[in-house]
Queue: 3 jobs
Job 1
Amino acid sequence: MPLSKIQFRPGINKETTSYSNENGWFDSDLIRFRKGYPEKMGGWTKLSSSTILGVPRSLHTWAALDGSKYMGVGTESKFYIEEGGGYNDITPLRTTTTLGTNPFTTGSSGTGTVTVTAPSHGAVDGDFVTFSGATTTDGITAAQLNLEFEITLIDQNSYTISTAGSASSGSTAGGGSSVSAAYQINTGLNTVVSGTGFGAGQWGGTVTSFSQTTLAGGGINDSVTSITLTSATDFQTASTTISADVTLTSTTITVASATNLPEKGTIKINSENIKFGNRSGTTLSDLSRAQDGTTKATHTSGDTVTYVGVILIEDELILYTGKSTNTLNAGVVRGARGTSAAAHSAGVNVSEAHDFVGWGESASTSATSGSNIRLWSQDNWGEDVAMAVFDGTPYYWDKTLGLSARATDLASQTGASDAPTITRRIMVSGADRHLVCFGCNPINETDQDLLMVRWSSQGSFVDWTPTATNTAGSNRISSGSEIVSAQKTRQEMLIWTDTSLHAMRFTGPPFTFSFSMLANNISIIGPNAVAAIGDRIFWMDRENFYAYAGSIQVVPCTVLRYIFDDINLDQSFKFFAAPNKMFDEVFWFYVSSGQTEIDRYVKFNFTGNTWDIGTLSRTAWVDTGIHDNPRGAGDVSSTNYIYVHENGEDDDGSAMTSYIQSSDFDLAPDGEQYMFMSRLIPDISITDSSADSSGSVNYIIKTRNYPGDSYTTNSTNSVTPTTQQSFLRARARQAALRVESSTTDIAWTLGDLRIEARPDGRR
């Protein structure tokens, strides 16, 4: 009987039915197409056995002049610099403060739990604090206390830590009078909760505080100015004085005492309400002047400062400055900040709302930190690195200070002038050497403008004040409501808003950069869903895939419907593009429907114009360049590692289950007759790196008689490097081929298929 040669078209195609895609490929996992033929994808190994706190969402590599190779790793909890397989914690500090006398109280006898009294600490659950100066307390030694700990929140004035010690008596206070607490920046979210993230938001504002009670008494009408709560313990009041004059242009305010002042909120000086977005000790910064309809004014040292509390009852914001027991009865302002005074029944929820961000209000650093997952952007400035939290503070790490030194605020660097204090993304422009912030606060303002682009003077990362003799400047993007992403190319920087794409090009004096809109009605699915390879830019939006190389093109995708019909858009901030220039590929890792973490990928080979799909959990990626192999971050049983990809054939020493399955092919013209298959001749190259050279690949023949039938597995044939032919017995109108491997130490490349078959009747 004659042999029939079956040649399959390259690429996975799920845009049609399996039968209509005859002689094509329909499904895959952990394979790639190279020169039109499928092969097993390369394996990966751990970079290091060291683990990382938090899920890495940002990787960036660079090299120092001495040849040292570094990789920045940003998670929702930490920022590390990896060097030689070791992870160095350089997470910036939020504040350092001295606690009161004997701030530690031990728990039960024999346990290591310690309660820390720290008024207005500003921490959230999961934050990290490092103590110094503590003395031995109830059998828990000073060495066991003067360490870094993860915080378990109790309230805004206390939290617990877990030490390695053991209390002798229990319920004993100690620690001494010289305990210093260094708080790292607040941790961020790892998973977007419903109603947050790109393109989402709560109409009327958001509250992220932890203080909540209910309305007591008989409720209130829309005009009362005395409000009784079930409990007002966690609803702050505070009074102090200013320690220095406050002018109309002041960007900070120093108070005599910060007791009971939160890390952010509103104060009243004379008749002016002033919002502050950050408190460090007794210094208030990130100021927004003349709030709540008040007038901006000057104030003299010694003037009274009163904390303005904010509560949210249903849809109404209410201000107050004083309380008596559980009753708010001083400085009560109803229907504040665009809300309306209304009647409320006894028992409704009352939330402490100093961190309220309302519709139409500009976001502050801390106000937005709990809305989206924690994403870092980073770029190297020479040997140093600049990094920023999405909608957070930009930071800078100086290599000369060593790997034990923490990153510090960009605005606090020596010689810093008007540096942004909040941004969405940070990037070095390229050969022209400007540090650029996207979606940042305008000069001389503290509120964030989500369309503002600012850049430093050429060759300086600290000089942000535009003058006639430097190149610092700014520009506001002309369309959209927010910048979502930015990407550096060889010739320009691309900026995506929620509705458009813009180009930012270096032109030199007098304007430094030019801006032009490349396309309207186009966006990007998430901040990291873009990749640059050479002169090409590839990105994913909510409906399509695009490429840019001087002009914008839709990239035809043969698995488009499959991807977008099975995708969790609520987690789109996690989606990211991963270039692999070793094989002319771009991955997009995404969260499938019903999942909350990345579990799938789609991959495009841009030289062969082929697509394939698969399952793999990766959370961040960096391509070759500084290192010979790409690196990817993964989550394995909640333990986070960095993996070196295209390294061997296995999943970190375990077998990879890699497969490709064809669409249906007719065994007789148009499926007119049943055919009897008796033999197949494999065409496959198998590389076995094991000592016994026992690796094999399975050829699986699946058959059915009609497109609506389920497949029947007729034959599984184990193929080794020396297999010449395999025999089978199968009778059907149409068949599909599945090639898979699930053993260690092998790689394979598939060629064409030959099958021996004869007609076997119509019925």
Job 2
Amino acid sequence: MYKIFIAGTILLTFLSSKAFSEIQIDGILDEEDWKKAKVIETFYEVFPYSLNEVTDYKTQVLLIETKEGLYFGFKNYQSNETMRVMSHLRDQERSLTDKNGIVIDFNGDGVEGYNFFVSSSGSLGDGTVRDEKERNWDWDADWETAATVEDGVWYSESFIPWTVASMNPQTGDQRKIKMAFYRMLMGVGRGFSTIKGSPFENLYLSVFNEYEVKNYSSSKLDFFPYTNLTEDIAESGFKAKAGAEIFWKIDSSRQVNMTLNPDFGQVESDEVVVNFSAFETFYSDKRPFFAENNNMFDVRSRMHRVINTRRIGGRPDYDCSLYGSLEEYCNANKAESSEIDFALKYTQKGKLDFGLLMASERDEKFSKGRDFYALRLNTSNKNIKYGYLGTYVEKPVFDKNAIVNSVDFDYKPSKLHRLTGNFLHSNTDDKDGFGMTMGYGFDPNKNFHSGMGITFIEDTLDLNDMGYLILNDRSMFNGRTQFKKTDFDEGSILRSRLYEIGYGSKFNTDFQRESSNFALKLENNFTNLSEIKTEVFYRSTGRNTRITRNSELAPYINMPKGVGGYLEFTGPRKPLYIYSLRFERGRGSEHSPEIGWGSKSRAYFKLMPADNLSLSLMYQYESENEWLNWLDENLLASYQRKQRTSIIEMEWFHKNVHELRIKTQMVAFTGRDPVAYLGNLQGKLNPVDIGIPPITISELAFQIRYRYEIMPLSYLYVVYSKGGRVSMQDEEDEIFSLYRRPWNSPEKENFTIKLRYRF
């Protein structure tokens, strides 16, 4: 392991910092230029969503525009007793610390916004906003920010260069942009904004305030070489890898991103998920190459994503039957991921937005790499936006291709109404498939929202070569109606109350009913910052066409009625700690196919003994009678299921340059007293005398990650990871014994040093 430490030290032979202007970003607004800044002081309360003008907490925003970019400073006045100062990970928006920020719509068309925030500790976050209020924190930008705290006030100072985003060309000397400034006071549980809208409500991007700035042109070239050194402890191997990424912003509207021999491994480990269902678990992609300008290619609904970039560099295709005597060796040596030779992305903003994405995988042992292509066209006219997204995947292992065509639109005739839709076509392995989603929203005032949607997806629609589709062969109607009250008397213990009704009905594409559901939700937010949430649901009988994986012997299973609910309590926010408790009880859920009664309990506790240190613990216990699991064809089994999940996490920071994170996630899953069933053509489960062994599964994900920020977007990572999955057919139930199994016999254990540096 010493070889890695020595190599990592050599790689840090030079460190540098970068300043964008003569204004020093130090959180102290003492330069003469700030005296000439535009001043913004009118804020509205958006959490709770009263929309009343704020008079009790003074907030001042200072705004300066230059040819390099935008400078903005915040003066946040409040008592020391209510201040919350806590360092946090980048993009950790829900951290319990005071923060302020800005969201910029550089085109002023309400299509896309860029979010930048800084906490009172100086920790930062950045992300994008699309589809009115859908936020994505995977995008990281090159900008500067700092904060300072004084008696009765804290300040932030930030610089956002024009080069952070691609912009539509605008004629003339002036550019129209839209912005929203906001401030969160976590100690009193309130949020303010310069607009009457919130990302937690249904109106946001469309109600931004308009500003005029000079129509500056910008360009930038960034070169990111990287080196990744890994010692595979489990396999006793050592691997060194090097590559580079190039981000070239040609001008304000055009950008080219290219990567050679890219490092597409993520230093962040995915959450451990025990999934026995027919539905694939979706994981987000934090890789910088794909996160940059990703919104242009992000066409999705609750059911699908036309592009899922985690497919690129994913598990290779294999057909081991082609290798004769080596078939068994081929099956035993399948790789978990593919190497990538190169990837290219080009985007251009204008009257017609244009985007092109290409990536090529390297040939692996017993496998040939795939090639991925995507084309995006998008335009808007007054109150309607519409576009096309097409993908093409070459699969040489199977000598076949996969094509997907998608047309999407977003129509807003007024602030009251909104209509969205997506029409899909796929041709995969010479099979055509069609699908569509439609949604309608109605927002007559700040207290009321109603929305509904329909979905139709043929059984031959397939997006999963480059996209993500939860399931096909589905017709669905669903909706929800919300009413929120924030205008309580001064002496009331309530700050806000939410009522919600949800409903839906599901069919296959032959309109055979699967199930219908109905749910009632109530949320109470109290003046002491505690919360109580509760929900009850009802699910009708219906067919489950997924659990048997399209078996011809049992195409569906008739499911019983489901009923249940949950109760969740979040305690008052304290400077030292926070906690929450949740309890669920029911037969299945409004969406899940379980046939037996079950319960789930969860407890969460977070301790914050210092501004730069936090410790958290989550424990969840689940149990269920008659948990139904598919085994093969029409063979299923019911179990007495029990699952225990523990997550322990520690975060430590030093001056927002050094970051140490230790996280452990452990899952112990047991299925006992199995009873075998055979499904028939009528969807009935018939008990059979077949010996079914019990299930015992232990999963572990453990990681120690140190990150040193050399300069914005340049990092040194030192990471130790360990984990895996152990599946047994025994009756072990002692929780610590189950947790130890993957620790003692890990599937993976490695030590990595990674340096990513920007020139």
Job 3
Amino acid sequence: MPGAEKHFGFLQFIFPESYVFCKVNIEIRDSADNLTQITSPLDKDGKCMKITLPAPPPENSRISRYIKTKYETGTYVKPPYYKYNVCIETPEKDKIQFYGIQIFPDTTTIHKIASGYKLIMLPPHGLWFSSEIENEQYTQKEAQINNVLNNLKLPQKLIVHQGDPDDMEAENIEIEYKNYIAAVVSGMIYPTWNTNAIRAIVLLLNSFILNRLQSSYYRSSGYNFDITADSSHDYSYAQEYGVFDNIRYFVEDIDNLFAADNNGNPVLYCNNIQSNFSLWDANELAEKGFSVIEILQHYLGDKIRIQEAESEEFHEESATKNIDFGIGSRGIYIMNLQEDLNTLSKVIITLKPLKVDGIYNTDVETAVINVQKYLCLPQTGRINERTWNSIVDLKYSVENGSFYDYPGVTLKIGCCGYNVKRLKNMLILLGKKIPSVAVDNTDGIFDSETEKAIIKVQQKLNCIPDGKVDKETWDRIVAEIKY
């Protein structure tokens, strides 16, 4: 194999239960026919050791979606992944051969060995030499769901028809739901893409399948399956496709969330069928800093939201009971938290913008402590139901403009608490325009230094300089900050 590679990916096989704790012999050949031989024990789950293999640089799989056109016109294009051929010798001395296994940098490609596997010819990745599926047009009969769907449940398993719905010779196979999602997405996009793009596409696929199931799209027409593997009707799927570990992680992480319309129905959207959603463009938006919900709303409209099966919308009280997030927590809920904190960072001076990656790290903990301090809550750095609901309410107040509403009482020396924190936060913001009026903290105490700052503000804004903040002074400060 190439000796000067700087980037590596990983390969792992999962064998049937009957092979647990056995050893398998694995031969791997690269495109130059260099051979690597490995003997690997299998663990209690039938997994072999992770095999490290050279991979191309990550930027190769983040290039233009017109790669196919460039290739066909003879322009040299660096490959997004390296291909390997693998021969596995089982304990029974049977041989299983894979041709065209794809290895991306910093990603584990996982292939699950099914009984009866002998020769597996893997096609190129869907974004590589294949047609621009996302630009093709197909005819699809509408699947209508007229009422809000209640008690949505993601199934444990799906029956997938391996051909056109009317192809009676095509096989029906049963597959675990999340394995299906992970395999389909692994064949649609590159695992090196921005995590927000991957999450958005997983959510769309979740929504599409939920819509198919809840409307009994195929079964109500007399078919004995839930969905097809035919890309002219649903999403392309093949049982032998490999799965990328990070995409599998996002499928597990997103769990039973889906993209819903304003009636709460799962979005019926398949990029194979509808052409205004571009996979490559979704990744480009994510690279520009778009969040998951912003990517979905960009293509599907502002009323699209993320909802959870078997519950009301996430921000509802029922979704926050017994909530407890802290360092190490991950998932779409943490992404929502990060997005809310970023909204608050525009108006709360102690908050800094966070990376929206769904990981509760020390930066998130610091931001939570600062918000808890601002809201006069216990400064634990963890998110419980009270802190979550307080952050959500505060975020909504920023979005609807009520964040700057006058508190209804005159603030003066001796006052303390949340409204004084709001005032001092505004003074710091105002200090960016008028440096002489800034205060050095937001501790919620209206002291003599605060009074001096207010007098300076009143003098600048042509108010009575009495050091007290009535509605007129408050509104003048707000107007100066906003405009």
